[in-house]
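Q: Structure tokens for this one, please.
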Amino acid sequence: MKLNSQKTDKLGYFEELNHIKDVEEYYQTHKNKPTVCRVFNKNYNYSMKHVTFLLPAYNEEISIGPLLKQVNAYQKSKVIVIDNNSKDKTAKIAKKRGADVLQERKQGKAYAIKTGFENIKSKFVVMLDADNTYDPQDAQKLLIPLMDDKADVVLGSRLRGKREKGSISRFNLLGNYLLSFFASLFFAKVSDVCTGYWAFKKCAIDQLLKEGIDSDGFDLEVEMFSKISNNKLRVKEIPILYKKRQDPTKLNSLHDGIKIFKRMVIYWLNG
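A: Here is the predicted structure, written as tokens:
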């Protein structure tokens, strides 16, 4: 099989490589090709079959179907939806779309993510919100630094990337800038500490579970960033596309913003 560079650029490394049946043999034959070496190395075959997509969801029946349709383009990846007490058809739609659905009865995004983390067996994990504001195609950009062993955790930055009109209010934008400024001051440089789009090596998730996850809601991202930074794990940021929600946000900007900042100060003082 011949990898055409123009086709690879159009489809992305991973979709192209999904069609390779015997990746080990292909690597040995074509290991001089940069498009192959980017995904495979001599010791291990890294492809999308080693990736799990993790989607925490609460009353997302409007967005979960279209989102999973896009995620399912990565045919070899596992998809887990953690249903956090949805009152609508979120879980039913997710199952119909082929996702593994886990139930988390404790209300809060952090509880849902912890349940998801505890069920991870793959080498890499992509975590994104189930509201379809993040583009699954950007997952490739987040995964490449992990697969190239240049990072342990990669954040998708909305503030460095493109944002659809109306995707984030000026108040929330200002809040994100301020929280990211203090996170950079306290821990490590970051442009969008509140992003809901992350990619992890499993070793980073294991470290988070070992230390324990104390938050319960939207303060989860700050907790993860602080603990990852304090443990000297390698972090990168990649610009991403951020889309407008199709239904009202569940974020209480002022209340959650204050809660996030308090959480940040606690981990800074205890760090």
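A few notes: The radius of gyration is 18 Å. DSSP finds twelve helices and seven strands in the chain.
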